[in-house]
Amino acid sequence: MPPLSPLRRTLALFALALGGFGIGVTEFATMGLLPDIARDLIPGFDAAPEAGIAHAGILITAYALGVVVGAPTFAVFAARASQSTLTFWLLGLFIVGTVASACMPSFGSLALFRFIAALPHGAYFGVASLLAARIMGPGKQGQGIALALSGLTIANVIGVPLATWLGQFAGWRWAYILVAVIFSATLMLGLAVLPRVPGNPDRHPSREIAALRNPRIWIMVAVGAIGFGGFFAVYSYIAEVTTRVAGMPAESVPWVLACLGVGMTLGNLLGGWASDRNPPLAVIGGFVALVISLSAYAVFATGPAALIALAFTIGITSSVLVPSIQARLIRISGDAALLGAALNHAAFNVGNSLGAWLGGLVIAAGLGYLAPGWVGAGLAAGGLVLALISFGVERRDKARSLDTAGLAVVSR
């Protein structure tokens, strides 16, 4: 990559983060606007709101499934592509899918286009993480990844509350129009400032697919999918907890989301710093803290002050994990770094789908709107166990490698 001036480097990192900001708004604003979308598109919502909210959770699941399908697909078949060119095409697909979502007349068609709009999600964060790491330079991969992901977390401070307010005030469709504007601005800025990184003609989809035979990759994918599902079990229904449990007005939902977003932003920065220093501690410590915060939410988030404090805590403990898991997947993926980076976000969105589904089940079963907190704590505990297994497998493989090297020396 050619050297960049300080100004262009800053603008390039900002452009990558701005795309993540748009993704954060389009993904998380849907959760804050679930009651509004359900009331508009699901017949009989007012007669059975709990069942209607659980049904509306399909939108979250559809988006998550789009990420799961799109992330490895783009990573494999765009193996030879220029990272910068791939970024521009992904942003174009985001614009089309998001505008279409705003125009859909029925719940089924909206779910379909939420799936389509999600297809570039994982690949974008994957290629943005790699570009940011290139721009930051050697030894700062974790910080580069955190910068690329910073837009996602800042979206929860500014963009998601703004889109939620706009959706409540002017109609939920305008939230998606706002997202399309953000993606359009990102594309124009990216075309102007992102360095043009040449593609690699020697790469081939079969080599990317071959990386999937590495069991350590799949263990880490399971860590993200199950462990991060705990966060989404709570986040998916936090708008209902705000109004129906904590007794706050609907206008308070954006403020609760903003508090959670502040925690996510701080956690992301802390996670980027920690992953460059002690990745195992960052992952294991993050999961322990997340289990504790989700359990506390299930018990204590019954009033405004407790809900806001716990939303902030869940935000910071969950986001500490993201750069650490991303950096680890990139490292163990070897030459298939784009695939590893994209699979991380596919894993998180499996967690999105799983958490939203299980959270909706316990609500629909009549266990209350705080019950997803216990679901989340159980999923986060599962992620912790899998993370311990992952690090144990790595230590075992290193020990075997050392033993093999020693035997080779003796035989010679």
- Label the overall shape: globular
Reported for the largest beta sheet, the result is: none
Residue-averaged pLDDT: 83
Based on helices, strands and strand pairing, what is the structural class? mainly alpha
- Radius of gyration over C-alpha positions, nearest whole angstrom: 21 Å
Task: Label this structure with key terms.
single chain, 412 residues, mainly alpha, 82% helix
Can you describe what's shown?
With 412 residues, the protein is an all-alpha fold. The protein is built from 19 helices and no strands. Helix 4 (58-77) packs parallel to helix 6 (107-118) and helix 12 (229-235) runs antiparallel to helix 19 (372-411). The longest helix has 40 residues, at 372-411. The protein is globular.
Short description:
The chain is an all-alpha fold.
Topology of helices and strands:
Layout: H1 6-32, H2 34-41, H3 49-56, H4 58-77, H5 83-103, H6 107-118, H7 121-136, H8 141-170, H9 172-193, H10 205-210, H11 215-227, H12 229-235, H13 238-245, H14 253-275, H15 279-300, H16 304-319, H17 321-332, H18 337-364, H19 372-411
